[in-house]
Amino acid sequence: MRHAWTIDRTAQGFSLTLAGQMRPVLTQCLPPQRRPYLHPLRSPDGQSELTQDRPAHHPWQHGVSIGLNGVNGVGFWTEGLLAGHEAQDGRMRSHLAHAPSATADGVSWVVAASYHDPSGATTLLQEQQRWRWQHTGDGTYLLDLDWTLEAGVRVDFAQYPYGGLFVRMPIHPWSSPQLLSGAGARTCTAAEGRPARYVAVSVQDPVSASCAGLAVIDHPANPGYPQGFRVDGEYGFGPARCIAAAWSLAPQERCTQRYRLVAFTGAPDARQLELSTTAFARS
To answer: pTM of the predicted model, to two decimals?
Structure first.
């Protein structure tokens, strides 16, 4: 079967390149002793970069990643890079559990990660990220995530203003970011911490001047749906179950949450986002 993309393994993951484009549309990174992440993600037309890695204002953030806070008092967000938090930050190990497998319209793969206390002696969580990338052919592409956590011991997750799936986009003075949430918010302040079925942000590329963005859609089966979204002052955003309340897992208990990312060109379109949200809810 001939596909409209190629998959290339890298030293710490893989990249996926669409036919006719010079640069990968997606790269999965698995750095040693760090959390896994996707960067860069490019727009469906290949003209814009949609993610940013290690920005000066948040050097521990990486494109699309998962970070947690208050896991039995241990942090898995700032990676030991925030002064005063070093002793509270846990250790992580990750690997590609299932290599990317191509189908007629997409690619699937599985990333596994383990969360350890700062000493490395106790395994708090085992994580599985099941990703599926789908080329829709309508000017967008989809990234579906099934995110599963399994507790090694009893784990209490503190109530916190952020923690979970998070998107860091490239925001510069020329980016002209635009935001739209499923609750009707159009500014970071209005969207911050508020429950929403989705949040979408678009940015303008400084080279091509084209506009493109990413949306994150919550699924109705997720606990606390619609979950609150963290939206910081630099347009970093993501759903966080911990915004509403603390929660816990018993030893060997599992919890799976589902999300969909939609990469699009142009500014956020409310009608299209509503259609995408409805389609994901039915999946």
So the answer is: 0.95
